[in-house]
Structure formats: structure tokens, C-alpha cells
Specification:
The chain is mostly helical. It contains 6 helices and no strands. The chain is elongated, with a radius of gyration of 29 Å.
């Protein structure tokens, strides 16, 4: 969400419509609870005291929450937008990561097959997804989509 969209969402947080000068219940406030994740404890405590004393209203408290969200979230949103602008590069990074994961998984599966004595360890070393004959001992690989009944 853009900063304006975030601010609109923060303004929609349900609070009572007490006038400024009216003591407010900061203890059960979603605004105060969320702000605890983004500001220092002393700052949140001060704001809660101001709400309880009636020196601050919900509009100002929501503004502080929106400011805190902007500080924390906006750099992440901008990075996301920048990454999405170069779709071919992003796809190349994802493909490279998938290849590394596939290689690592093949090595892990070769070790598992070797330790358990299940399957052909040579298959596991040469391909990331070794195939097994559905009629072999132990039946098809889990998730292979094949159903096999012994003796059929």
C-alpha cells in the first residue's frame, strides 16, 4: 500500500469519538498496541499517558501510528517496487535459486537413500528427481501420482 493508502487504513481503526480533553482508554487501544511494535517503549508510554489525561485525541495518535508505519514499511515497499521493475532479472534470480535448491536436494536425497538403502543411490546422484518403477519394492515414490497394488 502507498503511504496515502496506509494512512487511510490507519484512520479506519475503530476508536471512540470522544472530544479532545476527554480521558481515553489507551490500555485496550489497537492504535497503542500496534505502535508498541514501531516506537520505543518510553514514547508509547508517554502517548498513552497523554491519551488517558485527555491531552491527546485519537486523530493525533493515529497520525503517529501512520508516521511510524511509513518509517518502517515505506523503504520495504520501495525496494519491492524496484525489484518488480526488472522482471527478467527477478526471474533469473529465481531460476538460479531453484537450480541451487535442486542440486542441494539431490545431494540430500542421495545421502538419505544411501543411509536407508531405499532406491538406487546412483539415480539420486545423477538427477534431482529420480524416477522409480512403480513395480519396484516399496512401490511408487510418494507424490508420484501412481497407484500400485502388490500382486495385481
Amino acid at each position: 500500500a502507498t503511504p496515502a493508502e496506509r494512512r487511510a487504513l490507519v484512520r479506519k481503526i475503530v476508536t471512540d469519538s470522544s472530544l479532545l480533553g476527554t480521558p481515553l482508554d489507551a490500555g485496550s487501544s489497537a492504535v497503542v498496541q500496534m505502535l508498541r511494535h514501531f516506537e520505543r517503549a518510553a514514547s508509547v508510554r508517554e502517548m498513552a499517558e497523554n491519551l488517558r489525561a485527555g491531552r491527546m485525541g485519537w486523530a493525533e495518535a493515529k497520525g503517529r501510528l501512520a508516521d511510524a508505519l511509513d518509517r518502517e514499511v515505506e523503504p520495504l515497499r520501495q525496494r519491492f517496487v524496484a525489484l518488480r521493475e526488472d522482471e527478467p532479472h527477478l526471474e533469473a534470480v529465481l531460476r538460479a535459486g531453484a537450480a541451487r535448491a535442486q542440486t542441494q536436494a539431490a545431494g540430500t536425497m542421495a545421502m538419505v537413500r544411501s543411509l536407508t538403502g531405499v532406491g538406487k543411490s546412483a539415480d539420486a546422484r545423477t538427477t534431482a528427481f529420480p524416477s522409480r518403477d512403480p513395480g519396484s519394492i516399496g512401490g511408487p515414490m510418494v507424490g508420484s501420482g501412481h497407484r500400485h497394488r502388490r500382486g495385481a
